[in-house]
Design goal:
The chain is mainly alpha-helical. Helix 1 packs across helix 2. This is Acyl carrier protein.
Length: 90
């Protein structure tokens, strides 16, 4: 049985991945990123948000609406939505 290594086990896995992307984009340590702060507090604009969503899409092989950046404005909210929509088992 082959295990998909990019399948997150929880929303926290997605948060951890997104923290690394945001840290690189904002040029700050990922340990300083609060997953409950809004994306704009990290200085992310619409271009960086699309970049973040593309990285998540590629990492987890999912499709994410660009509107999610505004509908779920924190790492925790966005990760929960992505996980619930794509990976939560019924």
């Amino acid at each position: 049985m082959m295990i998909d290594m990019t399948r997150p086990q929880s929303p926290h896995d997605i948060v951890t991945f997104m923290k690394k992307v945001v840290a690189a984009e904002a040029r700050i340590p990922d340990t300083s990123i609060d997953e409950d702060k809004s994306f704009h507090q990290f200085g992310l604009d619409s271009i960086s948000s699309i970049y973040l969503l593309e990285k998540v899409e590629n990492e987890y092989n999912v499709t994410i609406s660009p509107l999610y950046f505004w509908d779920y404005p924190t790492l925790r909210l966005l990760a929960s939505q992505i996980f619930d929509e794509n990976f939560r088992q019924p």
